[in-house]
Amino acid sequence: MDESRRHAEAWAREWRLRRRTQRIITIIAVAVLLIAAIAAVEYFSNRIGRTTYKSEEEMKAAVQGRYALESSYMDMVIEGDEVTFTYWSYSHYDRNYAERYGYDAEQDSVYTDHIVKWDYRHGVLKTEWMDDLIIDSDGNIHKGKYTVLYKTDRPRPEPIDPSTLNNPQGDPDAVVPEDVADAIDERADSIEEATEAAAAAAAKDS
């Protein structure tokens, strides 16, 4: 009787262990399949949403010009193989901002880069140090995950003449809204990252 009980308990332990192992394997397999499915969807979504070209020459001709995200005061100009990316100073171009918070001494942050590969089959411009520049189906440029620069024929902005401002020093009682302050902080972080990346690329070349 004791021997039979021991066999039964041993069999039950083995059965529970086998069930637990099968569950773990099933969970891992499902997780791997989900990750693969998400990656596949993202890959095909990205590919479908891009502009591709028949040749490097066709791509180069198509992407020349200015791209801007004017609400965030930034733009990119592609001339030949050269890229110029600019963060415009808010107070130098936004009259309302300058009147409220003052016309400050901050200068435009300008960065230059060189296109090293025209990946026309995938709609990607590869540069020396910037993020890959992806051409979407509308001909706009995606820089990084979150920045979309829209192709435009509008000229680059002209800075405000501070002598035309009613209050170039700004309103001392003005409080910067939280969303504006967050945007300014994010912009400062982006400028810092771009400065460091450009400096690292310059040091590597020297």
Question: If you had to describe this structure to a student in words, what would you say it looks like?
Answer:
The model is unreliable at 44-48 (pLDDT under 50). This protein is 46% helix and 21% strand. It contains 5 helices and 8 strands; from the N terminus they run ααβββααβββββα. It starts with a helix and ends with a helix. With 206 residues, it is α+β, with helices and mostly antiparallel strands. The chain has an 8-stranded antiparallel barrel. A hairpin with a 5-residue loop joins strand 6 and strand 7 (141-143). The protein is elongated. The longest helix is centred in the N-terminal third of the chain and has 47 residues, at 2-48.
List the helices and strands and how they pair.
Layout: H1 2-48, H2 56-63, E1 65-69, E2 74-79, E3 82-87, H3 90-93, H4 95-101, E4 109-119, E5 124-127, E6 133-135, E7 141-143, E8 147-152, H5 178-205
DSSP helix fraction: 40-55%
Our estimate of the beta-strand percent is 15-25%
Low-pLDDT segments, ≥5 res: 44-48
> Order of strands side by side in the largest beta sheet?
1-2-3-4-5-6-7-8
Topology order in helix (H) and strand (E) letters: HHEEEHHEEEEEH
Return the average pLDDT rounded to an integer: 88
How many extended strands?
8
Largest sheet: 8 strands, antiparallel, barrel
Distance between the termini: 85 Å
Roughly how many Å is the radius of gyration?
Answer: 28 Å
Helical stretch count? 5
> What global shape is seen?
elongated
Class of secondary structure makeup: alpha+beta
